[in-house]
Amino acid sequence: MRKTVFKFTALTAAACFLLSGCKYSYFGLPGLFYEAVDATEDILEDSLYYDGDYYGEEETDIWTWPDSGDHDDTFDWDTDEHDNPDAKPGSVTVMVYMNGSTLETEGGVATADISEMIRAGYSEDVNVVIQTMGTKYWSEKLGIASNRSQTYVIGEDGLELVRDDLGQLDCTKADTLYEFIQYCAKAYPADRNILILWDHGGGPAYGFGWDEFQDDWENLSIDEMRKALKNCSVHFDFIGMDCCIMSCLEITYALRDYCDYMILSEDFESCLGWYYTGWLEALYDNTSISTYDLGKILIDDMIRKNENDRFNGDRSILALVDESKMDKLWDVWVEFAYENEDALLATNFSQQMEETGKGVGLGARRAHADLRLNDLMDLFFDDSEIWDVLEDISEDDVYMSDYCITDLMGLAYFIESDSSEKLIRAVDKTLLYVGATSDNLSLTGISVTLPYNDSDLYYELADVLDRSGYDDEYITWLKKFCDTDSDSSFDWSGWGEDFWNEWGEYDNSDIWGEW
């Protein structure tokens, strides 16, 4: 019995170490391991999320865009055209559409983020409403049910259950999102509304979701988001997506009529995702804080956490997008795209970025962990029991190029044409604030999807764009990328370090310090 306990403990420690390197962030312990670790609070804090001081003697600098100076200084309650007559003056409702999915089942990641929300405290003027869905095994830490969806609010005493009769909702349906927004607007009317979609993200073609109770390919697509938002009587101050690879032109343009701003990640996110305590504290302290200032706190906190957390952090980027500029940016992009068709088709501009902790497949990191597994297991085992436990490890690598994601500013800089400078300025005006870890300078905040040699991606994307009201000419034009014969891929290496200089001087130091 003692030998079994020792092996289990060693296996747990090894799993933590395996999946927590500087370059590959720790995704989370699979079900059984998580519940065992959950029983010991000190171990939980170290292995799943860290909320103390940042590691190391000094924080490593993060890179941000220069302040353009054209953002609002305060939220203007008097002139807001979307005022709700039933709302308390100065009130805010934050709606968190939380599909815990595999992130919670395998690692308790949703529980960690809800804990961050609770840690921020409470304000009578701010309603934080959380709907839990799509997760087969919620941690017992907060008492959230696994066999049904529930709605909670952050109250004076912490997490308070307000709806327990929802059944098991499908988070990938437009009706589910619509009903949640309508419920929040009626039960918690506010002058200012914020919507956050929490889970996996798959870009414009594959949307949001991966509900564990649904088919693997079911998702909440852009057009379904539009349907839910259009039928609601709520306009959002900002819509945020705590998800991978959702900061793309196709999404920001499609949702421009339903919010003033968006906060999105162009890259894959680590299991840390957003850090919720800081920006909620700022909102509690001042409900009229400008979205620019609130977004800056949110972005800076996320980047610092990922920069300095040696166990869970990973390469990260997050952008605050001004939706009022989106019509202009779209028009400028289409002009640039058509003018430079030959250059775009001659070279594959998709960027190869390895998938990290909050991604769907986790293949690249697990394959990397597999390479280190033999040496580590020799320390604890003289048999092959470990392989029975980790039999689901995949050798497949997953890259951002599988989603054909290309940085918009990068294209504008590297393709010389009459419209290049115009596109650079349009992107610069649209991105109010961007933060990135020091190892993620190859991205600048927002991407575009060009389906190079990928017919499957094209038809998925074309279907979504068509249902979202995109121009037929542009959708047809995108098909040319499926048939391009070019085998040459653009070399993005060095772009962030040597060419792109908006982030500031690149810091090539060891951000992790000594072990």
Summarize the structure.
This protein is of the alpha/beta class and 515 residues long. It is 37% helix and 16% strand.
Question: What's the structural blueprint in terms of helices and strands?
Answer:
Layout: H1 2-18, H2 31-38, H3 41-47, E1 63-64, E2 88-99, H4 101-107, H5 109-119, E3 126-133, E4 150-155, E5 158-163, H6 174-187, E6 190-198, E7 200-201, H7 203-206, E8 208-209, E9 219-220, H8 222-230, E10 236-242, H9 249-254, E11 259-264, H10 277-285, H11 291-308, E12 317-322, H12 326-339, H13 341-346, H14 363-377, H15 385-389, E13 405-407, H16 408-414, H17 420-430, E14 431-436, E15 447-449, H18 455-467, H19 472-478, H20 495-499
Parallel strand pairs: 2-3, 2-6, 6-10, 10-11
Antiparallel strand pairs: 1-14, 3-4, 4-5, 7-8, 8-9, 11-12, 12-14, 13-15
Helix pairs in contact: 6-8, 10-11, 12-17, 16-17, 18-19
